[in-house]
Amino acid sequence: MSAREFNxxxxxxxxxxxxxxxxxxxxxxxxxxxxxNPKLAALQGLAKMRALAARGFxxxxxxxxxxxxxxxxxxxxxxGSDAEVLAKAAQESPVILACAYSASPMWTANAAxxxxxxxxxDGRLHFTAANLNNKLHRAFEHAQSARSLRxxxxxxxxxxxxxxxxxxxxxxxEGAANxxxxxxxxxxxxxxxxxxxRSEFDTSISAPKKYxxxxxxxxxxxxxxxxxxxAERSVYIQQNPDVIDQGVFHNDVIAVGNANALFYxxxxxxxxxxxxxxxRRAMAGVGADLNAIRVDxxxxxxxxxxxxxLFNSQLLSKDNGKMALVIPQECQEVASVAAxxxxxxxxxxxxxxLIHFDLRQSMRNGGGPACLRLRVALTDAEAKAMHQGVVxxxxxxxxxxxxxxxxxxxxxxxADLADPQLAIEVHTALEELSRILxxxxxxxx
Length: 445
Ligand code: SUG
What we know:
Helix 2 (38-54) packs antiparallel against helix 15, helix 4 (82-92) crosses helix 5 (94-101) and helix 15 (394-407) packs antiparallel against helix 16 (420-436). The chain starts with a strand and ends in a 9-residue tail after the last helix. Strand 7 (191-196), helix 7 (217-226) and strand 8 (234-238) form a beta-alpha-beta unit. The protein has helices at 26-30, 38-54, 70-75, 82-92, 94-101, 141-152, 217-226, 241-244, 272-284, 302-308, 330-333, 335-346, 360-363, 380-385, 394-407, 420-436, and strands at 3-10, 58-62, 112-115, 125-129, 159-162, 179-182, 191-196, 234-238, 255-258, 261-265, 291-295, 314-317, 323-328, 351-357, 373-379. It is 34% helix and 18% strand. With 445 residues, the chain is of the alpha/beta class. The chain has a domain at 1-107 and 372-445: Succinylarginine dihydrolase (L-arginine/glycine Amidinotransferase, Chain A, 5-stranded Propeller), CATH 3.75.10.20. It is globular, with a radius of gyration of 21 Å. The longest helix is centred in the N-terminal third of the chain and has 17 residues, at 38-54. One of its GO terms (biological process) is L-arginine catabolic process to succinate. It comes from Duganella sacchari.
């Protein structure tokens, strides 16, 4: 069966702001309380979607979530009318108000883990919404993520959308950011590689000392069970705890894979040789040879990888049998990375093209090209069965640019979150968006 990969990018929501909510994510912490530009953020994301769609790559979007999250605010004791809830939260706990306003669902790599139908026991495409329970501002995303995914992938003959795992530390799950599928081609059975940062129950597994490990082994195993993956084609690899402590809060900040290629930093995994060995053996079972593209510390130190987001890139298969690496502009500005990339495309290996984008608004919160997208490999029948209103076209691009221009502010400071008008603006914008995308009732909870 042939299949095509679609990237579902998160459309940046109108409340995009810098609140420093993600301990362990260096960019989020460094930019705390600076002014954001939600309009520019959304336009930067749309420009990426448009350009990749125009190149013929499968491109779609996932809608933003309604903000502020009044359910969260009310559940922690802020009462009264909506305006009163906002005023009390702004006065008593601006940080909780910022959590309720976060536009973090834009990083759709964290929306869910996805297993294509070629990998699952029941021949359906499976999603498990990620509970994101490590961070208050993200721990509530899964309900709407599952809702949006069910609205797009409705047909239960083809698709299964599972609710998030229990929201407890033992099952900390960050979705596709710690999951990579390696295969011969997108339509045939592949090997699913789950990278975890710690284990709840196996005390022999070392954990980071400074920053949290957001993904547990137990969560990865649970997702594999829910998706009906075979044991021979599921590989569990421990992330190097030392790089988590250097700001690598998800595996997709230090490694990216596509088809049979794994582009990774030598320090990415706790046991590099063991990880490659496991992958090679599992991939032999699906007739694929691992193409391990290793970046040495001497070429690119971990700090430069984190600053540039070299590995938070998208690796996309092209018609010429080669791959393009979609990178953030910052990669051209960090000297070691720029030099490395020049050599990479000249090397004759699988990656023969660099496509770069200005995604600075998202990058300042620690979200690069790969964070902004959820990969879904779809057979022709599945691509036809999904909701078509989210597929990126030139027409949709222009409609959404006009919608952003109409509804989004070009400056948001922490104090603006107290403005009751902002809540009304966001809600009005999203109501109109649900009509544009042909998804009525998307935000009715
Ligand atoms: O979860 N940043 C996100 C960035 C997610 C990146 N995703 C992947 N690597 N796949 C996070 O840390 C910052 C929000 C703030 O500080 O306002 C934030 O949530």
